[in-house]
Every structure is written in structure tokens, then in C-alpha cells.
User: Fold this.
Amino acid sequence: MWVRELSLADFRSYESVDVEFSPGEVVLSGLNGRGKTNLVEAVGYAAGLESHRVSSDSALIRRDCERAVIRLTAVIAGRETTIELQINAGRANKVQVNGSPLPRTRDVLGVFRCVTFAPEDLRLVKGEPSERRRFLDGVMAQVAPRYAGVRSDFEKALKQRNALLRSAAGMSASDFAASVQVWDERYVPLAAELTWGRLNAVRRLTEPVALAYQSISPAADTCRINYVSAIPSLVAATSIEEIHGLIIESLIERRSEEMRRGATSVGPHRDDLDLQLNEMPARTHASHGESWSLALSLRLAAFETLTEIGGEPPILILDDVFAELDETRRGRLLAAISPAEQVFITAAVTADVPTGIVGQRWQVDAGDTSHVELETA
Amino acid sequence: MYEGAIADLIEALGRLPGVGPKSAQRIAFHLLDAEPAEVQQLARSITEAKERVRFCGECGRATENDPCSICTDVRRDPSVLCVVEESRDVIAIERTREFRGRYHVLGGAISPIDGIGPNDLRVTELMQRLADGVVVEIILATDPNLEGEATASYLARMLKDMDLSVSRLASGLPVGGDLEFADEVTLGRAFAGRRTLG
Assistant:
């Protein structure tokens, strides 16, 4: 698939912009802070409904505006599809596909697919577990969109259950027992379903990650990914029912501890994706270069999985990553992404774009006037 | 920024449910432009409603008469009780004309985040109403969302050992809707709750 046209209104620094792209490599260059990342961020948002830079939508809306609009026309499976997303300040977002409104914004997930590589990806290796959970959930939402709904329901149930645990001290034992049972009935099925989705995503990604690492890393190292849960046996579960049973069992075991701490101690919100490099935890043992190889491998594995699911390669975004990579990794990354039909590359200076990349080149200078120009050079 | 009486009015309107700052401003200026008589009528309606409307001691819904017209209607079946969250749910069900039993309004749903537990709802009152054995069937008609489902399952457990028939409103496909646009949860429930024909 490839993006033919992107229009933005009141998105980030853009009051209004309309750009037409061609398939192949699209290089967006321009000084930092002039809006090139904003363009690819909009493309990524249309696919995953989240920005790779901020967790809150409000940062995407231009200052003092009520809404931002992303309108993207892509050629998907040979047909043109237009997605129009309205990001509203303080209200639910809205989405239309080919002019028809969808009942909920998250119904757009899976229509258009995209994988973003960015300098922030280093946090996948060195950062908090939440970064890796976000990665897994992001892949899952594009592979099986219904998981976005499961995750949002899970988060609501978790909040309610935590609130109940915090108020346990002021309740009689029998009142608490009756209430916690009710919330366990809501919480556990959602926790089990989300965990099952994550386990399957990890199982699907394991081999592609290992292979991608071999193709990126200059050294003959091996890497492996494992899902990690507070319940060790859960990782080997073969059905959603088994996970359900394990979580219930563990919750009952930890009830007094949970009441003391006022927080749910077992569930997908506490799990992690363990990254091993030569049988050692990458978080503590990987060098800067190795961490980059690993981060790239995770994204490449996502790219491969989404290609397989969608029947065609998703859009690739390489946001300012070449500046972070040495010559060998640059070359190997380029070789690995060659199946993509369209690749957006942003760079502050064209010197950071590897030679051999041809295709469209744009000079981006949003500044105050909000415009993008095709480089005439 | 607005000052004095205008600011007070905008602020008061903004506290109403579903009214954001922008709408609050719009309503405030609409009221300032309106005829004095019209505004006085509105103010009177609000005060009168607040003075006259009370809650039915029996079912708990907002009404001018206690007990309310539904609880005193002898044509209605006293053996069937429909449990809802809010008074407005009673009106919604009444519009269907499908239900000829009586109601019990809980006054909300269990929601620990909002500090609402079973003891903050009219659950004790429900148990008292069931004590005389007149009611033999209960329909749990709380909202089909997280809090409503939690409330229904809490009540179902409390009612389990009583000699009652307890049911939950079905959830499924909207009438006049398209199957292909239904979300997985709704479609899944519609499957689980399917009916035999003929």
C-alpha cells in the first residue's frame, strides 16, 4: 500500500497543508522543529490511532483550535481508500472511511497499516516495561483490531477494581468480599483475553525478531524475546481458559497483599516483554549499537507480521533514524525494508540520508506559513 | 473574561451534565437576549420542579406523587419487578409498552471510582420489597456497560438463594441495523443469546 495524498488541518504546526506523494522512497528534509515529523506522525496516527511521540491527542491539535483533521488517501490492495480523522479537543474523535462515518474511531484500525521507526525506539530496549507493552499492543491493534477494544475495556475494569481495593479498608469484610467478586468477574475475562492476544503476538514475532536481528547486527549474536508475567506458568498457556484460571488463582492468593497495596498485582498491565541478547537481558547488557539493532529488529518483525496479515507490506516511516545508525546498520536496514511499497524518510540534513535512496524529495519548512515544497534541486 | 453575574451564570450552567464551557456561554447569552417573562418562566419551572418532585417511597423514581402512579396502578402486575439504574430508564421502558409489571430504581450503578458501592444504591429497599413474597420474577435492566453489568451480577448473586426467577435484559443487534457493522462484543452476545425460531 502507499499514501497518495495527505491533507492536514490544524494538526500540530500546520494550519493547512496538502501534499501528494508517489510510491517508493519519500524523503522529507528540513530543519528540526519545522514540521517534517508532524507529517509522518499524521500518517502513523491514521494507522494506529496514536502518535509515536506523545501519549495525549491534545498535543496534536494546533494551539487555540478545537480540532485537528487528518485526511489521507492511500492505495490499499490496488484501491483508493480515503480516511478522514477528526481529533477533537475534549470530545470523542470521529472518523470517516470513503465518506462513511464509522460508529467508533477505533473501527478504523486495520484499514491502513504502518510501522514507524524513530529515535524513541531505543526506549523499547532501555526503557520501562510500559514501552514494550505499548509496542505489543500497537502491533496487536493493527493485526487484530478488536484488541484495541479489549484493551480499553480492560483498562476501565482495572481502574474500577483498583478503586475498590483502595476503599477496602473502610468496608466490612463481607461487603468487600461480595464486591471484589463482582469486579473479578469483569476484570479477569478481559485480562485473560488481552494476555492471550499478547502471548500470540509474541509467539508470532519471536522468529521474525531473531531473523531480523541476524540480518541487522554486524556481529554473530543471537537474540530472543519472551513474554514475562508475574505468573510464570502463564507464559506457556495454550488456551484463554487456562490463562483465566491462572489469573483467578493468583488473585485469590494475593488478595490480602492487594488490599494492603490498593492495587491489582496480576494482569497484562504488569507484564513485560523480555529481550535477551546472547542469553543476557538486553536492558542491562546491550551496548548502544546492539540496542539499536534490537529496536530495529522489533520494528522489522512488526513490518513482516503486518505484511503477512495484510497481504501487502504496510507503509514504513523512518523518522530521523539514519542519523542514529552507523554505516553498516544503515545499509542493512535499507536492505531489510526493500519489500515496502512506500517509505517515508525524515532527516534534518540530506547528508543523513543514505546514498542510493532515490525518489521524491520534499523540503519541509512549516514555520509560521505552514507549507511544504517539492525540492527543485 | 466575564465578570460578575454573567460569569456566575456561565459557571453554573457549565456545571450541568453535558454542557461544556462553550455551550454554557451560548446558553447564557441566549438567556440574556430572551424576553424577561420567558426567563422568569424557566426559573420558576426549575424551582417548582425542585420543590414538587420527590422520590417514590416504593420504587424510588422521581415523581410528584408518593407512592407514584405506577406503584398505585392496580392494573399492573405486582409479581414482576424490573430493576433499573435511573428514573429516566423507567420512562424509556414505559415507552415500549411491553412491560406491565412494576419498577425498582437503584439510583445508579456500582462504581468504586465514583465511590459508589452497593450500600449507596437502593439495594436494602429492594430486599425489603421482596420480603413479603409477592414478587416472583425480577428483570435486571441495568445498563449494558461495565458498571451496569457489575451491578446486575452483584444483584443476581444476592437474589440467587431466594425463590425467584431472575433474568437479565438481552443485548444484541440493534433493530434496523446491519450485521456487518456490529462490533464483536455485540455480535458475540447476540450469538450467545440467539433464539430458536418456530
About this structure: Chain A has ten helices and 15 strands. The mean pLDDT of chain A is 90.
